[in-house]
Design goal:
The chain is an alpha+beta fold and about 325 residues long. Helix content is about 30%, strand content about 20%. Among the domains are: about 110 residues, Ku70, Chain: A, Domain 2 (Beta Barrel), CATH 2.40.290; about 100 residues, no CATH class. It contains nine helices and nine strands.
């Protein structure tokens, strides 16, 4: 069972709900140790006094606010909690807003919020269901480990989810930060209509299990290959940018390709009656050449999904041509 990283109370109106906070995600990135080149010696970081060069124990470290000129205001860790003792134990919902009004750029990290005991599940589910029915998110603040957070509380299947949000002054204005932004509403006409058709043709149901970290797989295969002294196969180069004069043609071909792929993937399997005089188990196999021709119409991502369903070994190291050959051979 997971351990809570924080315990306190959630308040909305005059209602107080004891809750616990749990991390909702975990990082699966491949971890490397730092070594000195040419050796197997670990390189470690230490807390060192820059004047004496001696290591400093963690308990002897305090916070210092720089006043300039070498002067600091010293703040003990406990003093940060003392200035707002109750705030570090309370998540106070100050209002509810439409869920769609909170732009994705404001979201930071995600946590699960759970009732602290079975006796509080009724109030918990009441709040969760009300948020779900109203399509609202609760905006709140709380203090944890000496820092105040802005929060968004929203309903998910069976659980309340708490998102930490960036403060308004932490979010950059794209109009001021980016130089090459187009004029709003400048996309229109036949190109826009075709782009919308392409989006419609590629629209599918969201299932997070359909996606996985292929880069992490390549990192693991790289480590495994190097450990066995094997050659490393490089990835295919990134595609070149679409020229503006070719945009319409690229859009139309994309729509046709996506529609063809949908028909192929959605078509139900048909059972053919055996020809007279032939046994029932006599089935004609499609030639690898014919299969490869059809596979030529697929993107590399679609080819990789087929290779995954066929459990083709080494697929993450293959370029597009290698995927076409391997999928055609495995499917024949």
């Amino acid at each position: 069972m997971a351990r809570p990283i924080w315990s306190g109370v959630l308040t909305f109106g005059l209602v107080t709900l004891p809750v616990q906070l749990f991390t909702a995600t975990q990082d699966h990135t491949v971890r490397f140790h730092q070594l000195q080149r040419g050796t197997s010696d670990r390189v470690r970081y230490q807390r060192v006094n820059e004047r004496t060069g001696k290591e400093v124990d963690y308990d002897d470290i305090v916070k210092g606010y720089d006043l300039g000129g070498g002067d600091y205001v010293i703040v003990e860790p406990d003093e940060l909690d003392e200035i707002a003792p109750g705030r570090s134990q309370v998540v106070e919902i100050t209002g509810f807003v439409d869920l769609d009004d909170v732009q994705p750029v404001y979201f930071d990290r995600t946590y699960y919020l759970a009732p602290k005991g079975k006796e509080y599940t009724k109030i918990y589910e009441l709040l969760r269901t009300a948020l779900e029915k109203e399509n609202k998110t609760g905006i709140a603040t709380f203090v944890m480990r000496g820092k105040q957070y802005l929060l968004a509380l929203r309903a998910q299947d069976r659980v309340l989810v708490l998102h930490t949000l960036h403060w308004a002054d932490e979010v950059r204005d794209p109009g001021q930060e980016l130089e090459a932004l187009p004029r709003h509403g400048s996309a229109q006409g036949k190109e826009l209509e075709t782009a919308r058709q392409l989006i419609g043709a590629l629209t599918t149901d969201w299932n997070p299990k359909d996606y996985h970290d292929t880069h992490e797989e390549r990192v693991k295969e790289l480590v495994d290959a190097k450990a066995k002294g094997k050659e490393i196969v490089t990835e295919q180069a990134a595609p070149e940018a679409t020229e503006v004069i070719d945009l319409m043609e690229a859009l139309q071909r994309s729509v046709e390709q996506s529609k063809g792929h949908k028909r192929t993937s959605a078509a139900p399997a048909r059972t053919r009656r055996p020809a007279p005089g032939k046994p029932k188990n006599d089935r004609r196999k499609k030639t690898p050449g014919a299969a490869a021709a059809r596979l030529e119409q697929l993107t590399k991502g679609e080819l990789y999904q087929q290779a995954t369903s066929l459990d083709i070994a080494g697929r993450s190291k293959m370029n597009r041509e290698q995927l076409i050959r391997s999928v055609a051979k495995a499917a024949s």
